[in-house]
Please model this.
Amino acid sequence: MFAPIRGTTLYFDIEGAGLVPDGPVMREKPAAFIIHGGPGGDHSGFKPVMSPLAETAQLVYFDHRGQGRSGLADPAADPARFTLDENVEDMEALRLYLGLGPIVSIGTSYGGMVAMAHAARYPEAVSRLILIVTAAHGGFIPRALEILHERGTPEQQRVCESLWTGGFKSQQDLRHYYDVMGPLYALRHDPVAAKATQGRAIHSPEPLNRAFGPVGFLRSFDLRPELSRITAPTLILAGKHDWICPPEFSREIAALIPGSRLIEIETSSHSVRVDAPDVLLRELTAFIRAS
Model:
């Protein structure tokens, strides 16, 4: 499905009913936005891992502008608008387009940055906020570089040069990057399963280059001054072994969002969906269901 908003067309998909029979009444489940990372990825990596969550909430998946199927539907997209601020405004416009009230906002990695900024700028639009393996400012990049030099193989350090220089040129470049970097992203990395997941994804190099390159917007963004504006109950999940959004950045977020709760997952790196899917679904389900 496609939503024509803000001069572009966003792809979105919905899993689970919004109204379900509950004895003599129809019960309305909350709508939950599943916000993908990258930038330059798409929503497909959340399927089918997140599907059990549809028992608790109606799931709304979408691809950021110029990415995934949004990119396919909008081949003339302006790359200058592949930014965090634009993604935040797109997300709010999609919520309004779908006629939704306050949403459960679930952002992973870069998606967590979008979710944080959206919850700070539109606090009335978010009923619950869930931030998974993310960071609130560009300091995560030099820290990731340090960890890469400590843990990474020579091949992993070589392939990351394209990330730091904004040098990805094709989907094939990005698939090779994730093939090589898989063991750093997930402690339980399975090359066969990972190749299938990446094969299903639509990778978009330009948004990633514009985010991480030498003058990329992720190098200078800083949401910390905004976080005190977040009013939604907030759950933060960090992976103890995360190389690119290390857990100290989640601790920092937790200290800045009033009343937030932080869980550090001992058995996970960045890909919590791979390393600890049972923990992920248990904590998300309990948090969304909490009154």
